[in-house]
Amino acid sequence: MGNAPRMGLIHAMFNKLWGRDGNIAVVPYKSDLFLIQFPTESSLSRVLYGGPWHVGGIPLHLCLWDSKIQKVDFSNSLIPVWVQLRNVPLELQTSEGLSILGSALGKPLHMDQDCKRLLRPDRINLCVEVNFSKPLLHQLNVEFDDESCAIPDFYSWKP
Fold it and tell me: In the chain, what are the domain boundaries?
């Protein structure tokens, strides 16, 4: 989705993310489309049903190859993206609080491991399914217990 990163970056990132069972082969196919060969069926399944995946901050759409494959139109699609929330009060850094904040942006999917273990309370990373056909928020204004705070622009990627 968007302009593809350089081939070297794609190959290096795929092998770093997915290459524990062996080398991942990546071949350019058409403009912004790539064929990816996995060393095992289990690594293929792990990648297809894991994710969402991003390379260089750009979301990937993965599917099994078929001879009629074409570039997918995402203009009206829900797209999972990572959002980074800063200045989130500690009182809201619970599963319920973060779910409410994520819901203001779209459908919350999951949070990163540092967030789950509260290792980086200054930076919360959530994966949220966002509908990019609707206007995007650029700031969350949060009010709770007679306090308020603003959480500024947070999208890791925009179309």
Answer: 7-59, 78-152
